Amino acid sequence: MNPHLDSLQPYPFQRLRQLMAGAVPADKPHINLSIGEPKHPTPDVIKQALVNSLGGLAVYPATLGSPELRQACADWMQRRYGLQLDAEKEILPVNGSREALFAFVQTVIDSQQAVKPVVLSPNPFYQIYEGAALLAGAEPFYVNCTADTAFQPDWASVPESVWARTQLVFVCSPGNPTGAVMSLEDWKKLFELSERYGFVIASDECYSEIHFGQPPLGGLEAASKLGRSFERLVMFTSLSKRSNAPGMRSGFVAGDAALLAKFMLYRTYQGGAMSPTIQAASVAAWQDETHVEENRAAYIAKFQAVTPILAEVLEVALPDASFYLWAKVPGGDDAAFARALFEQEHITVLPGSFLARTAHGINPGSGYIRIALVATLAECQAAAERIVRFVKTTNQ
């Protein structure tokens, strides 16, 4: 067996199941705000395109994807970011950002070096970053994101000796779980570090279309604004959150053509080609913005309804983007808070400490909960009211 498998830690939702083992919830309707799974209906334009393309099930897919899909992705990049990308060389369709993020690390990391390679990750983080690094034979290094740094990675805290071994840096903007968005100055600092140390930047941007009217800055967009090429820079995006289609497993990677050529080679052997049926539905999704605007409006309505209610008892504010609230809980024990909330109000949230690692003396997720506003507006509002009642009752 691959010995690196022994390095993997339990996934956050496995830990959540363990936390809730034996808990008996109150006899109230369950509201699950723990998992970041979109619950809005998948748009009809996507479903119809899927049905119309069922003939694609009889065809082996090309790993590079169809010219129509790559062009649809490139056209979206032009509309969204004002970037002119080469659809043949700078776009690669993938089966959702999760598998692509994992596979990309296996492509990039050179574990044959004399010193062990390092993969830098924000902390808290999406656990795929860590698992991909470990299984590639690299050492994860966690860069804390705290309120003191506006939930951005504290790059200044990384020692020179670590930078010297760093081959890949993950960024997530808008961030999971905090919703923080990198500014142009943030990107400038990271690009300067990449120039100095030669590492690749993998920018996870799957929440980019859930915002409050100000589209978040993207990594390739930042590079263009700063007069930088896409060298050693790729971005990952997906239809899961943007289009409420997580079951399609559809997204794309864009950026450095040389990196994507190697990634394409890896995926040819890995078997990462997207079904032609899914490709056709993806074209329809990337070409339509009406459903994205409606989706965004639905999330805005939930944030506007829920945030002021929760602010009565929790330290919480609107994120820059994404569909999460990152709330600081009274008492500081996020796991105990989550379990008691489940028992007394039958509401499930995710302890923030499960999304982070103890690094440099702290677990930056400790004392926080992640609230995913994926349920209906009525359910989210009811959950907020029940959380307020729970906190007030607990603190009496």
TrEMBL record:
One MF annotation (Gene Ontology) recorded for this entry: pyridoxal phosphate binding
UniProt GO BP: lysine biosynthetic process via diaminopimelate
Keywords of this entry: Aminotransferase, Transferase
Co-factor(s): pyridoxal 5'-phosphate
Transmembrane residue ranges: none
Keyword Ribonucleoprotein: no
The Aminotransferase class I/classII large domain, residue ranges: 30-387
InterPro entries listed in its UniProt record: Aminotransferase_I/II_large, DapC_beta/gammaproteobac, LL-DAP_aminotransferase, PyrdxlP-dep_Trfase, PyrdxlP-dep_Trfase_major, PyrdxlP-dep_Trfase_small
Entry keyword Transferase: yes
Matches recorded under SUPFAM superfamilies: PLP-dependent transferases
Name used for this protein in its record: Putative 8-amino-7-oxononanoate synthase
Organism: Aquitalea palustris
